[in-house]
Amino acid sequence: MNVGPGRAFPLKREIVAALRATRLLPLAEAVYGVGRVRRAAADNAAYRAEHPSVAFPPPELIQRTYGSASLRSFHWWGERNAAHIAAEIERFKPCPDPHVLEWGCGLGRIGTHLAERYAYTGVDIDHQSIAWCADNLKGRYTVNRSNPPLPFPDNTWDVVFAVSIFTHLSASAHEAWRDEVARILKPGGIFIFTVHGTDQALGLSDSEKATFTDGRLVVRGGVREGSRTFLAYHPEPYVENVLLAPFEQVRGPIPACSQTLYIGRKPKP
Predict the structure, then answer these.
(1) pTM for this one?
(2) CA within 20 to 30 Å of 9's CA: 16, 28, 171, 227, which one?
(3) pLDDT (tens digit per residue) in 58-94
């Protein structure tokens, strides 16, 4: 997995597969994370001193949700990813001052930068992350359940975006959340999302590559759905025929946010 800064789990593919099969991968990742937090401590202290006006989440929470305990990485990649998303919003926004929802905002890595510019709301299933965002960042933040619906009426949002969310969901969840986004978007609104596309699928096993080449979704489970190590890979035909089915495809696939980005527009009646 590569969501900007969060590096792939640093073990050989065969070892990771064995840990996944035996349900021990979360434990291995937790132990690895403790070491990363400790090793990042000195640089984190220096980076905090360099940026006294920035609110940084606890490194332990960053490591758990983001895959890196580095404040430097978290902040720099957040700015860079926010710039990518803002550029796409400006290119395709349906109105001058769009109301923007981030589905899967995590610790506000991207949202904290967009809240300076838009009427921004973030939702996430992680209660601890949402509590931290609500206490420390601009914008509005709400906990959502792991399954639809979101706590919004039909036709609420001008823009919905999701960075590295479909990348951690099962096949059935892909379709359920696709339909939920279509429900809450206003007609003419845009849905910006990233997936693990062709460039991110290079490390698949031979059998997974065959599935991917056949145009079918590849899912690596064995851990809790929605966690960093529950992974999904998305060939172009799957994205175009399934994820974009309720939308008009207006952009993609293009590289962005260290993944592959698409944009769909909800048709007007």
Answers:
(1) 0.89
(2) 171
(3) 999 999 888 889 999 999 999 999 999 999 999 999 9
Contacts of 28 (CB under 8 A, 6+ apart): 9, 11, 19
pLDDT in tens, 235-252: 999 999 999 999 999 999
The residues, ordered by sequence, that sit 6+ positions from 121 with a Cβ below 8 Å of its Cβ are 99, 100, 101, 102, 139, 140, 141, 142
Element (H, E) at 121: strand 119-124
Sign of CA dihedral 239, 241, 245, 248: positive
Residues near 209 by Cβ (< 8 Å), separated by ≥ 6?
A: 201
233, 196 Cβ separation under 8 angstroms:
yes
Distance (Å, whole) CA 217 – CA 207: 12
Which distant-in-sequence residues (6+ apart) come within 8 Å of 184 by Cβ? 101, 150, 152, 153, 154, 155, 156, 157, 160
Structure tokens at 1: 């997995």
pLDDT at 10 exceeding the cut of 90? no
**Cα–Cα distance between 71 and 64 in angstroms, integer?**
13
Q: Is 120:111 a contact under the CB 8 Å cutoff?
A: yes
What is the β-pairing status of strands 185-195 and 259-265?
antiparallel
Helix axes 59-66, 25-50, angle to 10 degrees: 130
Structure confidence by residue, pLDDT tens digits, 157-191: 999 999 999 999 999 999 999 999 999 999 999 99
| 3-class secondary-structure state, position 264 | strand
Q: In what order do the strands lie in the sheet with 99-103?
A: 140-143, 119-124, 99-103, 157-162, 185-195, 259-265, 248-256
Token pair for residue 158?
């001008």
pLDDT bin (cut points 50, 70, 90) of residue 4 is: very low
Q: Give me the amino acid identity at 197.
A: G
